[in-house]
């Protein structure tokens, strides 16, 4: 089968991870190209002058950039299976949660922890990790895990009765923190049950194969029965 | 006419400003309640436990939170006039630009400049503004204004042939920077022509009436012929 599209992504980018899972959920044939956005490769900058991942290039050369634009585009052009809910209010709740994970959770937790603990290693930064930022990220993480657990205890999936972009977004961020061994799963049993359900989906398998150069994953990372 | 909804917003919040403009563009009768999210008012936290603005409450009590969820919800439930384009690729381009302004531009420019120069004043913070953050925000601003000018010189509106969420998002952020006198309009004539076009729309009028306690707006702020 010919690939319908190519995704330029980075294993360290939680937004790229969401698009990867979505492409599998929609069964869209695709190929993956790992991009190191900080290297500012000229060929990549011609695709996306902003220089950030993810970027989707379709077979006819059409390019879509920015994670939200890409995910909405995939959901519009490949509507089945639905990943945004069935009603305007249902979609609003799913987009609220997706936005929460992609803005607040990312800024408060994922950016400081992944940035300080992983990005600096992978980029070979001469700056040491900021222990103040790591401390703040870890402290913030607890509240979000409680919120995920609280939500997951009340609904089959974060956004409602069916799996949706809300689960994909949350699990994409969580998967990076889990790789780094940042999640105290035993303290968050409801969040753990939810994450086991999501990471066991075939669409998630490709993420669990990722290995970051210079960083060994936590023992639970690829384990579906952790 | 009965209001169809109530918007909880903050004049200092560029995301709230986008929803205000969108409600006017869609001619949706609404009322506005100014919220100071940092005061964490219990009645407001019951509507949105995350505590951030904007929050939309409909006449039947239904609540939608997070700016992207609110804007997509309004665009779905009141599709005319269209503010997201007419085709999936058109919408992807509009959402790309909207995402660019709401994530990168906000983080690189608006958050440091508005946070340091305005939010600290309005909140009565005991911390002085960080001159390093203000400098960085101002430096970053130049590139974005060039990009707006470059785009506006090639299309009638940022997202294409018609006004869209891309213009609303960009202009909402720009309006706050303009209030603070941060825009060297004479150095960015194409961006200036575009902004005159957007701020002259009736939907923008309500923003131009805003006055922040303790901060006098730049002389150009409400002037449509600056």
Report what the structure shows:
Two copies of one chain form a homodimer. Chain A has 226 residues and is α+β, with helices and mostly antiparallel strands. The first copy, chain A, has a domain at 88-201: Glutathione S-transferase Yfyf (Class Pi), Chain A, domain 2, CATH 1.20.1050.10. Helices cover 51% and strands 8% of the residues of chain A. Chain A has helices spanning 14-25, 42-47, 67-77, 88-122, 131-152, 165-179, 189-199, 205-208; strands at residues 5-9, 30-34, 55-58, 63-65. In chain A, strands 2-1-3-4 form a four-stranded mixed sheet, covered by helices on one side. In chain A, helix 4 runs antiparallel to helix 5, helix 4 (88-122) packs parallel to helix 6 (165-179) and helix 5 (131-152) packs across helix 7. Chains A and B meet through helix 3 and helix 4 of A and helix 3 and helix 4 of B.
Short synopsis of the structure:
The structure is a homodimer of 226-residue chains. Helix content of chain A is 51%, strand content 8%. Chain A is an alpha+beta fold and 226 residues long.
Number of strands of chain A: 4
Biggest chain contact: A-B, 26 and 25 residues
The end-to-end span of chain A amounts to 35 Å
CATH architecture of the domain at 88-201 in chain A, by name, is: Up-down Bundle
Proportion of beta-strand residues of chain A: 5-15%
Mean pLDDT of chain A: 96
């Amino acid at each position: 089968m010919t690939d319908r599209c190519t995704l330029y992504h980075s294993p360290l980018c939680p937004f790229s991870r969401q698009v990867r899972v979505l492409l599998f959920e929609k069964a869209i044939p695709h190929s993956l190209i790992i991009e190191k956005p900080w290297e500012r490769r000229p060929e990549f900058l011609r695709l996306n002058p902003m220089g950030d991942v993810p970027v989707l290039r379709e077979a006819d050369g059409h390019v879509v950039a920015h994670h939200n634009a890409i995910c909405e585009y995939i959901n519009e052009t490949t509507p089945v299976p639905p990943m945004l809910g069935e009603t305007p209010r249902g979609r609003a709740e799913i987009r609220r949660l997706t936005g929460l994970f992609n803005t607040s959770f990312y800024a408060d937790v994922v950016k400081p922890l992944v940035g300080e603990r992983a990005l600096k290693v992978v980029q070979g930064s001469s700056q040491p990790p900021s222990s103040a930022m790591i401390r703040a990220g870890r402290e913030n993480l607890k509240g979000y895990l409680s919120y995920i657990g609280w939500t997951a205890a009340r609904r089959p999936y974060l956004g409602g009765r069916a799996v949706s972009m809300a689960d994909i977004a949350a699990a994409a961020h969580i998967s990076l923190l889990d790789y780094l061994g940042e999640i105290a799963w035993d303290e968050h049993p409801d969040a753990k049950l939810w994450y086991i359900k999501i990471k066991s989906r075939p669409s998630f398998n490709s993420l669990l194969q990722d290995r970051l150069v210079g960083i060994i994953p936590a023992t639970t990372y690829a384990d579906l029965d952790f």
